[in-house]
Structure formats: C-alpha cells, structure tokens
Specification:
Length: about 90
C-alpha cells in the first residue's frame, strides 16, 4: 500500500496566498490611516467614525488572514497524524 499523497506543498502555497492578501490589507490600512490622519477633528464627525470603523475592520481582517496563513503553513507540523479514532 502506498503512502497518501503529500499535500503540504499545496497548503504551503495556499498559506502564501493568504499572506499576500494580508499584505494587501496592510496597504489598505496605510491608505485609510492617511485619510484618517488628514481629518481636522479625529474625535468627532461622521467621516472620522467611518474611517475609524474601517480601520478596525481592516485590522481584524488582516489578523485573520495572518492566522489562517500560519495555520495552513504549519498544519502538518502540529497535526497528530498518528492517532486513529475508532
């Protein structure tokens, strides 16, 4: 009986895609932060609230992308492939 195919390369490739998406989020964060910093009054106003909320969402999305990338990259390293459940 042959060994199952090794998909670690495929998961690694997928992790790189997530990492690239996180880099795009970093660029979006920088652009949005520039817009936010140009506001005359950062502590009030609809535009300040909108940009601040957008920043929070972008940071959250980037964190999820980075976590998913790390999970995929290290999947086989930390998975217990020797256990058999009945």
């Amino acid at each position: 009986m042959s060994d199952p195919p090794n998909y670690a390369g495929s998961l690694h490739d997928l992790s790189q895609i997530y990492l690239q998406a996180a880099e795009l989020q970093t660029e979006r964060i920088a652009r949005t932060r520039e817009q936010y910093n140009r506001l005359p009054n950062k502590h009030s106003g609809q535009e300040a609230y909108r940009l601040y909320s957008r920043l929070q969402a972008l940071y959250s999305q980037r964190r999820e992308l980075l976590e998913t990338s790390a999970y995929l990259r290290n999947y086989y390293r930390f998975s217990n492939t020797n256990s058999v459940e009945s």
